[in-house]
Structure formats: structure tokens, C-alpha cells
Amino acid sequence: MDIKILGTGCAKCGKLYDLVTEVVNSENLDVNIEKVQDMKAILSYRIMALPGLVIDEKVIFAGSIPSKKKLTKILLKK
To answer: Does residue 78 surpass a pLDDT of 70?
Structure first.
């Protein structure tokens, strides 16, 4: 599974990255996590608000940070 955190380095983007990393580590998931900070690359996903969460090239969230419970549920389904 490939996970991308879309964001320009703001506090929310960092918080989402930390949350994803925490869930991945606690569930011992085999995933690649990548921070995408290049605006051209971010705009290619056609989202209007940051941060964005992309899993296997599908936008899951944009403009908000999911709860840990919700994020865990999403990652375990993949």
C-alpha cells in the first residue's frame, strides 16, 4: 500500500503525517508513506483544501484530519 500525505508543511499536514505513522506502526502495516509538498503534484490530485490523504492513488480525505479510529479502520480495509 502506498500512502501520500499532501501538504505544504503546515501544522495540520504534520499532524496527519504523525497520525498515519502512528497507526501504521501500531498495526504493524507494510506500507510506504510519502510526504508530497510540491504544489504542482498536489494540484494533480484535484483537491481544494489541505492536508490530503491519498491511498494507492485514491484521494481519501482532503481538508480535514480523520480520527485515529476512522483512519485505522480505513487502513485495515486496504
So the answer is: no
Cell output for 42: 498536489
For the whole model, what pTM was predicted?
0.91
State the amino acid at position 65 in one-letter form.
I
Cα-Cα-Cα-Cα dihedral of 25, 29, 32, 37, to 10°? -50
Q: Are 30 and 47 in contact (CB under 8 A)?
A: no
What are the cell numbers at 17? 503525517
pLDDT tens digits along 36-57: 999 999 999 999 999 999 999 9
CATH number of 2-77: 3.40.30.10
Determine the Cα–Cα distance for residues 13 and 52; give it in Å rounded to an integer.
Answer: 8
Residue whose entry in the numeric block shows the C-alpha cell 494507492: 56
